[in-house]
Amino acid sequence: MHKLTLTAVTLCLAAQLATAQIKLPSPSPGASVMQTVGTTDMTITYSRPSLKGRQPFTSSFVPLGKVWRTGANSPTLFTTTTDVMVNGKTLAAGSYAVLSIPEEGSATLIFSKNKTSTEQSYKQEEDALRVNLTPMENSEKVETFTIGFSDVTDSTAKLNFIWANIKAVADLKVDVAANSAANVDKAVAEKPNDPAVLQAAASYNLSKGRNLDQSLSWIDQSIAAGENYRNLYVKSQILGKMGKYAEALPLAQKALSLGQSSNDGAFPFFKDGIEKSISEFTAKVPALPAIKGKGKKKA
Fold first, then answer.
1. What is the pLDDT of residue 4?
2. Would you say 147 and 76 are in contact if contact means Cβ atoms under 8 Å apart?
3. What is the pTM of this model?
4. C-alpha to C-alpha distance for 32 and 174, rounded to whole angstroms
5. For the chain, which end, N or C, has fewer CB atoms within 10 Å of the first or last residue's CB respectively?
6. Percent of the chain beyond pLDDT 70?
């Protein structure tokens, strides 16, 4: 009877703590990792179980051949702000529950459209994507389950799952050029009269050799709002890219003059580039024909 009373009291206290939402230590604490790849933000939110003397992927602890929430407590979530290739397969922008099926010598990584999906509620028909991973031996034993990003470039990264002496890796890739171009077009659509946005958009397109006629229109609008050495220099570069050196040269010369008379501390970073452009444009502008009869004395 006494034991039953204590159990009831314990349950009551636990219920009160839950209702009060008191923050207490968790055996599998939560973690969140965000990584930018190019212009794409990717985030993993998960809970981190520890070994505590156990060995994972056995019959008794995270068993082989069965769906695992790839963490503990709440579902593990993966969010990407743009489409991403996972091991060569496309995963659309959005948020997904991450599950996996560990096997002997292999693993299946699952992205479920059902963000609440766990071992108990998982349904394969809700999969957004499945890819195969090949686990490898990790160089050191890791006590606490870890998910993270590594080998990051402007378009690729690796998504690592590490626990005990096992590591599994998924290759991620984003189309940084398409994403950047979409961001440029979106920015101009949202602020079509902002001279700074128009200049930045024109500069990006120039750097990629993309839509030069549109870029010229954008930079003309920026200049119309107030010319400065930066937007004049951008226009000269666009015209030069289009082969219109005779039009580009005076703009580059004016950009140099305005920059030299400005108090802009950033001008020294532009000066060499502007002077180099002036030299290149000058060499490509056809020499003016000599005026007939000039210098001859009358008979």
1. 47
2. yes
3. 0.77
4. 21
5. C
6. 89
Burial 96-134 (b: 16+ CB within 10 A, else e): bbbbbbbeeeebebbbbbbbebbeeebeeebbbbbbebe
pLDDT tens figures, 97-117: 999 999 999 999 999 999 999
> What share of the chain in percent tops pLDDT 90?
83
pLDDT exceeds cutoff 60 at 151: yes
Predicted confidence at residue 27, as pLDDT, reads 84
The rounded distance, in Å, linking the Cα atoms of 247 and 240 is 8
